[in-house]
Structure formats: C-alpha cells, structure tokens
Amino acid sequence: MADSTPKPSSSVKLVLLGEAAVGKSSLVLRFVNNDFQENKEPTIGAAFLTQKCNLPTRTIKFEIWDTAGQERFASLAPMYYRNAQSALVVYDLTKPTSLIKAKHWVAELQRQASPGIVIALVGNKLDLTNEAGASNSLGDDAESDAADGEDVDGDARKVSTAEAQSYAEEEGLLFFETSAKLGTNVTEVFTAIANAIPETSLKGIRGPGAAAAPARTEDPSRVNLTGPRDSASKEGCAC
Amino acid sequence: MFNLSSFVQKAQSFIDPTQALNISPSDRNPAKSTLFRHQFRLPDTQTPLQEITAELTISPPVIYSPNATQGEKDRDRDRGYHYVGKLHLSEGYLSFSTQPTSFLQNASTSTSSGFTGQTHGAGPGGNGFTLPLCAIRRVERLHSQNYQFALSITTWNGITTSLSESKAPQKLTIQLSGTRQACERFCDGLKRGLKSGVNDVQKLKRVVAECYSEYVLQGDTKKLDTPPDAGLGMIFKYPGDARKLRDRSKMRLWLEYLKDNGRNVTLIRQPTFHKLIRVGLPNRLRGEMWELTSGSLFLRLENPLQYSETLAKFEGRESLAIDEIEKDLNRSLPEYPGFQDSEGIERLRRVLTAYSWTNEDVGYCQAMNIVVAALLIYMSETQAFYVLATLCDRLLPGYYSTTMYGTLLDQRVFESLVEKTMPILWDHLVKYDVQLSVVSLPWFLSLYINSMPLVFAFRVLDVFFLEGPKVLFQVGLAILRINGEDLLDATDDGAFIQILKSYFSKLDESAHPKSEIPKMRAITRFQELMVVAFKEFSGITQSSISEQRMKHKDSVLNSIESFAKRTSIRNLGPDSKRLSVDELGSLYDRFYGILYEREQRSHMIQEETERKLKAMNIKAAEVVNGLAEMQSIEKGRVGMGPSPTMMDYDGFREFLAGVAKWAVTDSPTPPAKSMENHSYFGNTPKRRETLSPWGHGKPEPADHEFMHRLFRRWDVDMNSALNLQNVVTGIAHIKGKGDIMGSITYFFELYDDDGDGKVDREGILRISEALLFLSRRGLEGSLTPSQSVVGLSEYEAAFVGPAVGSEYGTTNERFLSSVSAFIRRCFEYADPDHSQNKAEPEKVENEKKEDADDMPDPNAFDIGDDSDGEDDLLDFSSGSPETAATSIISVPRPLASVADKPRERSVSKAQAEAANAALDPSKPLHITLPTFRMVVLADELLEQFFESSFPASFRISDTMVTTNNSSVPSPLTTFSNLGFKAPSVLSVGGGVGGTGAVVPPGKGLRGVLDNIVTEGMRVAAEVRNRMDEAQKEMENNAIQRPGDEEEEDDQNYDPRSAGGFGERRFASSEDRDLLEGADAEAMSVKSGHESAPKPNLLTPFPATPVTPGGSRSKNPSSATKEALFER
Where are the alpha helices (DSSP H) in B506-580? Predict the structure, then answer.
C-alpha cells in the first residue's frame, strides 16, 4: 500500500450478510452506482463489487462481497467472510424474523470471522416506515397500511429503533437504519465503517480488539437518529 | 445370480460405524442398474433385464419398398448405417448404444463405471436409441441366411399423424449376436415387455403430442393446428437474433435429420445428432431436445399427469418454500420480456411450486428460479417441471439441497481439476489468496445462465443435457485456460472477477480479431471456448469427476457439518448457557449421531427385508441386478441435506444409554441366536447376526418407565419426538441447576402427572422404583462414602460389617435401604386425599397414628429371598416410632440371616394392610413437594443422590466407559450364583431372572450387591403389585386366602408394572418372537418359490433359481414364430 502518499489508499474487505430479500444487494447497488432496481435478481453465491470511500485522511477502497441470503446458502458464507475486515449485517425493519437472523450472523461473525472485524447492523427499508418520508412523499407506503395497526399512521415498521439499537450497543456494533430505495443513510453506513477500521488493520496487521475502541467512539455520532432524517431530505430528492 | 457375499460385506461395513460414516457404497460401487439408468437417462423404475451384443442397421427409408424380395431386403440392410453395440432390455425400454457398457453380470466395479469415460461428444448414450417399448409397433424375425438371428422393429414414429400411411413407417434392423439360446431368451423377454407396454400407447400419444417435432414434421395439410407449446419464446420471442443464430438453417438440418431418424421417443442417435447439438439447437426444438437428451421425457412418459395433479393437489397450500419462491418470482431473468409479464411469472411460480411439493426435501433453492426461467423460454411448464426434477435428482445431485453439499463438493472438485490441469494458475491463486469458488460457484449453480449472455449459456446447456455434468467442468476449465494470461496478472478477487466479467461480455466477438485469415477472424470467442472445453479438456470425464467427488466428499461434508453444528449450538437459546460449550458439542454429536445411525440401521433393515422379499419371488430382474442398491445409504447425514431432526422414544433410549449407564439394559438380547426374528421393537423381521436394532457392539438401552417420563417431560412440544433443543433444555435442567432443591423438584414434577402438586401412592412407588433403577449400577458423583459411612455407621455397623467389605458396596446397599425408608416415610407423611376422604379425616388420622405406632423396627421391612417361594416380601410388623425416623431397612440382615429363614412369613397380606393404611387402596393418599423434599432430605444418601449423583449420572462430555454388556455384572444374577438356593418359582413364574441363564454370573461381592439391588427393585415392583392386587381384591370384594396367593401373584404380576425390568420384557418378547418366527416361517412357505421347498433364511434364495432363459429353452417353438409381436 502506498503509505507515503499524502492521502493513503487502502482496501478493505467488506461482507454483507442477512436474510433473503432484506436488500443487501440493493444497498450495495445504491452505494456503488447510486442506483436502485425494483426487481433485483437474487444473488447466487455472492457478488463482488468495489467502491471507493474518501475520508479526510485517507481513501478506503471497499471490496464488497454481497452474499446470497437464503438460509441454505449460509454454509457458503464462511468462504466469503474469510479475512473480511468489516461486515454489514442487514435486516428488514418490517420483518422481525430478519433481525433474529441478523443476530445469528453477528454471533457467527464474532466467533468465526477475523478478530476485530467491524460490524455494522443495518435495518433496511426505512422507506416503508413513515419516518423516512416525513418530508418526502415517496416514503408513504400505502400497501402496508392495513398490515399493521400498532404504529401511528400505518407504519410498516415492525422492529423498533430502540430494540435494534440497544442490541447493537450491547454487542458493540455500528447501527443504522437505511433505505436503499431512497438512498437514506447508505453512504453514511459505509463511511462509518471506513472510519471505524483501525489503522493497524489497514496495514495488513489485523490487531485483535483494535477495532472495538474506534468503533465505539464512532457510535454516538453515527447512531444519531436525526442524522437519517437530514440525509433523507438531502438524498431522497434524487429519487 | 444374487451376490450374497457382497451384501454381507456391505452389511459389515455398515456395522463398523467408522466405515459406515465415511463411505457411501453407492459412490464407490455404483449399482449396475444405476449405471444403466444413467447411461440411457431412464427413470428409476428401469433395471437392466437382459443385454446382448447386436448390430444395428439403419436403412435409408427412401429405399424401403414393401414389395421387395428377400434378397433386396438383405441388400438394403447392407447399404444402411451399421453400428455395433449392446442392446439392452429393461422393464419398459429397449436401448441400444455403441458406447461400451458393462453391467454384465460378471463385470467388476472398475469396469462397471467404464462407460462414464470419454464419450467423444456422443453423450453416455452413445449412438443408438432409447426406445420405450410402447413405441414399438411390430417386431419381426427376419429369415436370413447371413444372420443367425435378426429382428426388424417397426416403431410408432409419427404416431400423432393420422396420415402416416402415406409415408413409410420407421424400421430398424437389429442382428443379435450370441448363442441361439441367448438370442431366444432376449426375444422372449422383449415379447413379454412389449405385451405389458401395449397399454401405454395412448399415454405415449399424449406425451409426444406436446413435442414440437410432431408438429413440424406433419404434412403441410395439417399446419393449421396450433403448435405445441415451445416455451415463452413463442410469445415473447426467443433471446438473441434469430438470423445471427442461423436459426432457420439449423431448423432445416434438424428437420432433415428427424425425417430420417425418427423423432422424440423414436429418435435414433447417429453421429450427426451430436454434431447438430454442438452447433446449437434451433429455438423451437431446443426444449424438446433438452427434454429428450436429459431423459426427462421418459419421466414424463412414465407419469404424464404428475405436474397437473401436483398443482391441483396442493392448490392453496402454503409452505416455507412457497414464501421463498414468492420473493424471487419478480427477479428471475428480469431482463427477458416474458418475465416482466404475468404470463411468464405465473408459469414460473407454478413450476417451482409444483416441484417444491414433489420434493419437499429440496423445496426451493435460489438459482432454481433462474434455471427454470431459462427452461420456460424454450419449453412448456410441464416439460420444465420434469427437466427440473431430472436436474435436481440426477444431473446436479445435491446442488440445491438444503446444505448445498453437491455445490460445495463440485467446487472442491473443480478446484482440484484446476490445480491438476493449470498448476501455474493454481499456484498464483493460492499465492494471492484468491478463492476460485467465489467466481465459479454461480457458474455451476445456475448453469452459466446468469454468468454468460443468455444465448451462449443456452449453447452450453445444449451440450450439458446431452453429455452430463462434466460439461460444466469442461467449460469452466476452458474459461480459465483462455483467460489464463490475464488472470495471472490479477492479484485480488476483484481483479480476477473483473477479467472474467469482461470476458463473458465479449463472447460474441472474434477470438482472433487481428488474424490475417478471414476464417480465423470469423471464429468467435464462444466458439473458441467450446473447442477448448471439449477438445483440450476431453480428458475430463464423468468417471474422473466421480473419482474426485469421492475423494473430497468427506472433507466437504465435515465442513458443512461443523458449520451446521456451530450454528445450531449457538442458536440453542438461553437454557443452553447452563451447559459448557464442550458439553453442547458432545450433546449435538450424540444427538445427531444417534439419529444418523438409526436412519442407517432402519435403512439396512429395510434393505434386508426387501432383499428377502425379492429372494422369495426371484425374478430375472434380480438375477441381472446383482448388487444391492444403496443409493440413499447416507441419507440422514447432516451434511447431505435434510436429515431427521427429531428423535423418537427409541432413539431417546439409545441416546440415554450413551450418556447414562443406568439407561443400559440389564438383559441384552442374546447375540446371534440363529434366525430367530427378534423384534424387540417394531415388527421388522431381521436377521439377528447382522442387524441389531441397536447397532453392533453398542449397549442396548433399557426401557424403564422413568425414561419414558423423562422423554415426555422433555417433549415440550408434545409431538412424541425431541429435537436438539428439547434435549439440550432437558439436560440443562437436570445438570445445570446445580442445586439440590431444583433437582428434587424436577424429580417430583416428573411424577406429578396432572401437575396438581401431588404424587399419589402409585407415584411414590414409581419414584422408589426409579430410584432403584437409577442406582442399580452404582452411584456417581460426589457420594462421599467415608462421610456417609461415618454418618450411618452407628445404625449400620451391626449389619454391614461382616457381610460387605467394600465401601462401594456399602453405598449401594445403603442406598437400597434409603429407598426402602423413602417408601415408608412417604406413606408415613403422606396426606390423605381430601377429595375422597373428606368424610373420614379422623379415621385416616387415626390410622396414620396407628401406623406410626406400629412402625416396624429397622429390620422389619424385609427384603429377602423366600426359600418357600412366597412373594410376600413386605412385612410391616410392629416397631417403635423412635426408630422409624432414622430407620434404615437392612438388607444385609436378611441376606445374612437368610439361612435362618423361613421366618414368620405368616404375616398375611391382610394383616399388613390392616396395619398400614398406606397399603389400603381405599384410602387414597398423596405426597406434596414439601413432603417429598422433607423425605428426601431426611436421608443423607438420597440427599446426595439428588444433589450430585443424579445430575452427574448424565455424562455428556467424557467418553463414557461403555458399559459393555458382557462386562457389566448383571444384576440379574440369581441367588444360585451366591450359593443361595434360588427360588425356582420366582425365577420362572415371577419373571425375575428369566434370562438368568444367558447372563454371565456376577462374581463375588459385586454379585451380592447386584442381587440386593435386583431384589430391591423387585420389592418395589412387588409393593405396587401388591397394591394392584389389593385393588383387585377390593373390587372383587372377595378376600383371597393366603394359600392361593402364590399362584395369584404370578398371574397378576402385570408385566407393565415392571416395565423397567428388562427380564420381564424379555421373557414376553421372547414369546412374541417365537410367534413371529412361526409367522415368518409360515409366510415364507407360502410365498416362497415352489422350487424352494425349504425357505431357509440363511440362504435366502431358492437353491435352483429358474432363470427365464432356462425355462424358455424348453420351449423353443415360441421363438420360431415369425412375428414376435404386433399391434
């Protein structure tokens, strides 16, 4: 790696895990191409994409491994998260079972993946709730109205922010709620991960536990619920 | 002839668990009928019945003239194409192939897989035909001087065309070469097959009507008919530019070929056929050819309505697979217009759903949607359904299973092939840690469909269906070879993937754009790929792949299994936290190990049964099909996909026998005892010397009521089976509690059937019985003998000293005493059942008091041998209340004093009842948890039992020193072993010691103790027995006189009440076996072949099997008929 250049650039391997159809590939597509496809083909095995992320002090080149979500593909996952420095564990915030699956993945990663892996827990499909679209008509989702009466305004949300967040804090994960469809919070996730990757692991030395500290210091600023709203109004208009 | 020794060998390899776990006989030694089916792509119903060397002659149909003389006919035959090969007959098919085949009766394993070698592009079926017998219209025997034996076969070619008379029917000429006898035998078999095929002609007609070839080949006059469905392409256009694909000229060539060589089922494979496939199929024939070459057409022919019936049957039903399918419907080949339309999506939904119902083990796997979507472009829903079935079951075994082991395995195989064929590239990949399967896995899983542009992927599929899975490897290797130079520059996964991505996008470009020669320039990259794949990698054959699969299978399965184990253990929930990771790991292993082994065993037993059945009505089929088929031998292995996850009660017993020594039976079924059908469970007759329901060399589990209660307790979902979660939770509750109160409560709840916090008289007796059962092999854990000896010595010293020397012994002994005391105390402190006794509380109170007053002295609760054979073991004679509180019922004493016996046995039962309200069934009583707790805590040994020894008796982690049956001194030792006179009445009538003769006598002191324990258990049983009896007496309102009792006891001894006593069970099961043995014998006489008057089970085959050939040779006249068959 060119360490001598003023703005060093390094590669970071990132793996996406989560239940089928929670929007893993869509998150990547949004991040890499700033695009969204309604009917994305299911990922077979895994897809590989790269995207750069510019930080003030350095450039991170993400090598993104986007894995298949179906349960039976789970046994392939170790092949993909091998040597990953970061992971994005995605759930669908309109589907509580997907959070359970996400927790399983977090446990698997904590035990089996490289020590010090930076894990971000991401609740996707924020566009199906009413908070994302407060200032944005795209966020209104008529179809989910009938399904759920417990939340205000026919919100399709089934996993509360607090629940997921407290779990994330317990496990020392980054936490975001995103909408790949609207672009809400997507780049933020990747930037946060980039920031959380310890320098040591960038130089090829993966210091165990080194990731934990920076990850936590990022937490308060990143897991800011007002953040998503801001960016939603910024990026949401693009859709 | 049936190969018995090979079966025995397999049986042995199965019995040896290490071998059985690792080797699938089906892989190492594929059954010949499997090879046969794979070669001709026939359904599983087909077995090779006969085969004969033959020469196929195909005369150009134009030459045909019905009035030709014999000489002309001979000349015609000489003029046509000649192929020498093997002609095979199965139940429903006549197949011919020029590929070397070797399912000869005497073929060895190595040659039997020989034909899976190079096929030179012809596919395993080679040149020849695969003709359903129902497609044969007429078979004639030709009179010829040149040939010994020649058949002329007329087919139902063009069966759907009503005007076929105008055209010459398709005729094949086959010369059989072989002895006259062999030829006649073959013809005879053929004739029989043809007769049974007659009924299928209508079915055939319906099935081929869906083939596009029938439509295009019919005369111009009929072109008004609507063509059969040749896929979504007919509505939404086929992918690619038809002109660029030269679809028209391809179609013309095919029409020509089909005209001369038959269509769909009657098609004859000549070299041109394979060439035409290599250059790519025309759009409208593609579906049909895929169906034909993959063999799914034959599957459809077999059961043409399966698709529609399945859909109808499961309409409206929901499943996990359907949920998963729904998620993907809108995202399957979304770029193809047909799948942006509800028409395409509906078809896709129906096919995937129907398949998920027919194969629920596979259900739905992502990538299937892509494959089926691709199929649907070229074929009808029905056709796609059968092709999908063929793909999942045969062409891509294990690819889409729930563990995807087939996919992972083939990735490993692919990697090893790369290493072998491209070592430099391989070293590069290793050096830069590029994981090849990351790239290649989608190639295999979705058959290149979402890797290459569709038009090229379909070209690969054309060859794949004809030549089989090796094509996927050949193409994959060729891709790497062609891009080798560039790939050597790639130093990470990203670059690697990028190179291949861009290669795929340029497949239609010229491979040699800079070449001077126009012809070279015209070669596209795809053409180059095909050439490299099939020329350079022609050495990749089905057998080399099978070999590699064999080699890597274990490591792949192991890694899947360790992943599954990890995941499964992690997701066990909060209860599992009470156990260590190691313990969870071994619990997991034990749980699935038992499920797996049980599956294997039941499979073996089933095999065995089938084999026997077959042996009884021996047919030609089995003569040829010599090897036992064990395709699903590995079913049940976790890594292989859906495996059983639920453990039934018998499995649970086996599980317990593995972790707790008390769960091992005392009365193992005697080993290898002739042919006796011993059905300890289940009614499957089996041969004892090879197949034990518990596996060889493993402890046979006991069957005690306690185990049943435990099972029910753990079975929280009430489905009569336990999953791993249940077992872990169950164990965690016993082992993980760590406090005595929890342990006591747990035990109490086990016996509190209705959950009302009360355990009745019956329950108390059962508890005591269980305590004895659990302790009969000694107690574990931190029983501190020294301490307890000290603590108890004052009471015991008098009795223990001389009789028992070892501390181990004393513990056991004292435990028995404790249990006796337990019973008594329970009754003593039991509460009357108010619901029934409200009216007379005082009386009960009085009786209790009286009871207490009459409390026997410590020695009164006598357990001992009655040399007079009387069963009156309980003797509640008078005693002092002071001693009652600490009373220990001495066992040694009666033993020691056994010589002074017979004692005053005269205390009749009636008296005992009068003396003890506990024994009065008319006074229901119960104990509550606090009482139970108090009673337990009152006794140091019991306290220790609940505190440590019971939880410790479940030994999960350490490999248990297997209590081998032979080494365990059986508690069944009769008193005769000790020099005591065994009460003969007891050992026979009482059911104790029914197996005394087969059990090695216990030795010395240990034997004494065993006896004590046994006797103790008997006491408990007797107590309850007495209760039953008393109950009965109450009911009868007639008091039996003591004189009758002996007999009475024997009769009333309900075997169920002694459920835990193996010997009881054994005695009765032995009886049953006798009956069953008789049954089996009767059966075998009935169904046995006449020529085998003695159905000796040792030689399951009639001594003189009548082969069809043999019988036929006696009747040569039938073979001389000219028209062997005609419709």
Answer: 518-522, 525-531, 542-570
Q: Which residue of A has its CA nearest to B327?
A: A21
Measure the N-to-C terminal CA separation of chain B; round to a whole number of Å: 34
Rg (CA), chain B: 38
DSSP per-residue string spanning B384-437: HHHHHHHIIIIISTTTSSSS-HHHHHHHHHHHHHHHHH-HHHHHHHHHTT--HH
Contact check, Cβ <8 Å, A108/B570:
yes
SS3 of B758, please?
A: strand
Q: What is residue A179's DSSP assignment?
A: B
**CA distance linking residue B434 with residue B422, whole number of Å:** 15
If 0-12 CB within 10 Å is exposed, 13-18 middle and 19+ buried, where does residue B483 land?
Answer: middle
User: Which of B365, B494, B563 minimises the CB distance to A70?
Assistant: B365
Count residue pairs from A and B with Cβ separation < 8 A. 88
Q: Check: CB of residue A152 under 8 Å from CB of residue A205.
A: no
B450 touching chain A per CB within 8 A: yes
The kind and range of the H/E element at A89 are strand A86-92
pLDDT in tens, A43-58: 888 888 899 999 888 8
pTM score of the predicted model: 0.70
Hey, CA dihedral for A190, A191, A196, A200, is it positive or negative? positive
- Express each pLDDT in B63-77 by its tens digit: 444 555 555 555 555
DSSP 3-state assignment of B66?
coil
- Mean pLDDT computed over every residue of chain B: 71
Instruction: Write down the ipTM of this complex.
Output: 0.78
Assess whether pLDDT exceeds 70 at residue B1085: no
pLDDT at B167: 64
- The alpha carbon of B332 is separated from its chain's Cα centroid by a whole number of angstroms, namely 34
Give A179→chain B minimum CA distance, Å. Answer: 18
Summarize pLDDT for B507-537 with one digit per residue, the tens. 999 999 888 988 998 999 999 999 999 999 9
Mean pLDDT of B1083-1096: 41
- Report CB contact under 8 Å: B334, A41: yes
Domain covering A9-203, topology: Rossmann fold (3.40.50)
pLDDT in tens, B802-811: 443 444 556 6
Cβ within 8 Å, pair B441-A11: no
